[in-house]
Amino acid sequence: MITSTERDELLGVVRKIKGFIKAEKEFGIDELILKQPGKPGFIEEAGRERLEDLSKKVLSCKRCGLHDTRTKVVFGQGSKNAKLFFVGEAPGFEEDRQGIPFVGRAGELLTRIIQSIGLKRKNVYIGNILKCRPPSNRNPAPDEIKACYPYLMKQLEIIRPRVICALGKFAAQTLLDTTKPISRLRGEFHTWNGIKVMPTFHPAYLLRNPSGKREVWEDMKKIRNEISKITD
Ligand code: URA
Ligand code: URA
Asked: What's the rounded Cα separation, in Å, for the pair 43 and 158?
């Protein structure tokens, strides 16, 4: 016999699994991928396929009004094995033209920031809260974030980086579900579903306020230290 508390617990687990499978199905993933001990190749291959399936879906997305004005969807770029995942705000002019994140002036600065902690752009992952450019680079609207954020959540779940670096106010506030200003959030680790999150200033902000680079450097050193602890 099981107690009623145990029964409720079991029902809760079943409900969670059902919700998980439903969410996967919505994203066009109709097989359950389980970790196979001793077969790292299997899970890596599955990760690559899942990212590709997701990107196909996002490239034709019409969940919000931005599909009307976009040139290209900017899904994300980088390694599926990335230990560090950068989250920006939304594509700008160049990103919308090329379909690649952070390729404009802010992107050049981000590339240098990545190199400053001894990493290469191709070994991290770079994505945004919004996959399509808001006209004239206006701020993301709440309904656009609501429509698009699940795609980023999926990318994070597939890649499962060791550290997420949230660039600027929109990335930090969305991931951490808070309205606190970036100046208060940055400088220390928070968590997103068990993954460490370091909010820091956005490179576009640094282009306008170069004195903020000192703080970003402090934040990047903390990230470098965290990554250096990884042994597997
Ligand atoms: N700014 C962002 O937030 N993301 C980009 O991809 C480019 C600029
Ligand atoms: N305000 C923002 O939106 N982002 C920053 O990085 C700094 C200030």
From this structure: 10
197: left (phi over 0), alpha (psi -120 to 50) or beta: beta
Q: Which residues contact 144 (CB under 8 A, 6 or more apart)?
A: 64, 65, 66, 130, 134
The rounded Å distance from CA 224 to ligand 1 centre is: 22
- In single-letter form, the type of residue at position 228 comes to S
Report pLDDT digits (tens) over 81-107.
Answer: 999 999 999 999 999 999 999 999 999
pTM score: 0.82
Residue to mutate, 128, 167, 182, 185, ligand 2, most ligand atoms under 8 Å from C-beta: 182
Helices (H), 99-188: 105-116, 142-159, 168-176, 182-185
